[in-house]
Each structure stands twice: as C-alpha cells, then as structure tokens.
Amino acid sequence: MKKLLIPAFIIVMGAGGAFANKMINNSGKAIVNGYHIDAAGQCVTDNQKCNTVGSIPCTWSEDTDVVLRLEPSSENPTMCGQELFEP
To answer: With CB atoms 3.0 to 4.6 Å apart as the test, which of 2, 8, 58, 63 could cross-link to 84 if both were Cys?
Structure first.
C-alpha cells in the first residue's frame, strides 16, 4: 500500500505546485484599454490595448510621447489612472 500511495502523493503535489505557479505568474497581468489626457484636460480612451504589468511603457499610436494610463476612477473622472505597459 505504501508503494502506491507515496508516488501518487508526489504526483499530486507536483501537479498542484505547477498549477499554483501558473496562477501566480498570471495573477497581476490584465489587458485593458489605454487612456490619455486630451487637449481639453479630459481623460479619454483611444481603444488601444495595454498591459497592467511590464517594463516598457505603452504609448499612444498617434503620439509616441504620450504614455497611456488606466481608466479614470469614479471618484475623479477627469484624472487618468496608473501608467500602462506594452502587451
């Protein structure tokens, strides 16, 4: 009985560890629409997809000097959120 349970336990633990690792690696990422501040000072969407996690800033396709940000919060609808990154 021991000879059957120990290998089965090791296989189950390995599969559980692999699943947990996959969940951790994907937990912080999300693809979202980018927002920028227009000439009137409003935070507007440009329907460009960006990532919430990364190292290369996501820039607006019409002006690469403009870094895209998260959608505005309900408390302050004119202020864009945190910086976004290239997908």
So the answer is: 58
